[in-house]
Amino acid sequence: MLGIIDWGIGGIGIYNLVKEQMPGAGVLYFSDTGATPYGKMGRRELAGRLDAVIEFLKDKGMTRLIIGCNAASTAIPDLREHGIPIEGVITPAVEMAAKLKPEKLGVIGGRRTILSGVYRRAFAERGIDIEQRIAQPLSALIESGDLASSKLHAEAERILTPIRNRSHILLACTHYPAIQRVLEKYVSGHAKFINPAAAVVKKLRNVEDGTVHDDRFFTTGDPEQMKRSAKLAFGVDLGVVKKVSI
């Protein structure tokens, strides 16, 4: 089975694409909102947390993993060996954006993602200069179910105004596609947003094994809030969400 780990519901966008393109694939989705936000954890703490979650999902039958969170993906080099393929979202995002040959590329993401320099280094290796913006608190607002408030609009305008004339803007957080229509209001008409979810799913091979699996959803936070936010942000009815402690 395929595992998807995110601190919250951002990875549900990836889950949607998996189910559209590989409907027979069974998915174990883990939302870790009961833990400290991944972007606020230290490097060792984050790797240790992810190691524990990975082992939990392996016990549930996971055989392949997508870490559907940019902040968590920065910790992949620090993970211990788990004996399964692990994909992050950063490399597919860089590859997808580079193929578009952007004249002026902007990147918006969480604090940990931007300050890690992972995108700047990766694009520099490809000769692409970027301008980055820390986009806090967009993901927290989306996680709470806020997709259209005046506060959300004000934050989007503040974040995007300095890069509004970029030719392309990479959404370096899986939450952000849920508010792309809002973000489009605060950039120039020619700017194109890049949602890497499709590039992440394209990395998957042979995740359908011919067996019918029920998708299962876990959270260390509030199951009802997770269900509400997933429905509002991505239009997905999760059904039963099990609260767990790790």
Descriptive terms for the model:
globular; 2 domains; 246 residues; 11 helices; Rossmann fold; six-stranded parallel beta sheet; four-stranded parallel beta sheet
Strand and helix layout:
Elements: E1 2-6, H1 12-21, E2 27-31, H2 43-59, E3 64-67, H3 70-73, E4 86-87, H4 90-99, E5 105-109, H5 111-115, H6 118-124, E6 130-134, H7 138-143, H8 150-160, E7 168-172, H9 180-183, E8 192-194, H10 197-202, E9 216-219, H11 223-234, E10 241-243
Helix pairs in contact: 4-6
CATH topology of the largest domain: Rossmann fold
Straight-line distance between termini? 20 Å
Number of strands: 10
Structural class: alpha/beta
Number of domains: 2
Strand order of the largest sheet: 4-3-1-2-9-10
Instruction: Characterize the biggest β-sheet.
Output: 6 strands, parallel
Mean pLDDT: 95
Order of H and E elements:
EHEHEHEHEHHEHHEHEHEHE
What's the level 1 CATH class of the largest domain? Alpha Beta
Describe the protein's architecture and organization.
This protein is of the alpha/beta class. The chain folds into two domains: 2-88 and 199-243, Rossmann fold (3-Layer(aba) Sandwich), CATH 3.40.50.1860; 90-196, 3-Layer(aba) Sandwich (Rossmann fold). The chain is 37% helix and 17% strand. It has eleven helices and ten strands. The chain has helices at residues 12-21, 43-59, 70-73, 90-99, 111-115, 118-124, 138-143, 150-160, 180-183, 197-202, 223-234; strands spanning 2-6, 27-31, 64-67, 86-87, 105-109, 130-134, 168-172, 192-194, 216-219, 241-243. The strands form two sheets. It has a six-stranded parallel β-sheet with strand order 4-3-1-2-9-10, sandwiched between helices. Helix 3 (70-73) links the parallel strand 3 (64-67) and strand 4 (86-87). The longest helix is centred in the N-terminal third of the chain and has 17 residues, at 43-59. The protein is globular, with a radius of gyration of 17 Å. It starts with a strand and ends with a strand. The mean pLDDT is 95.
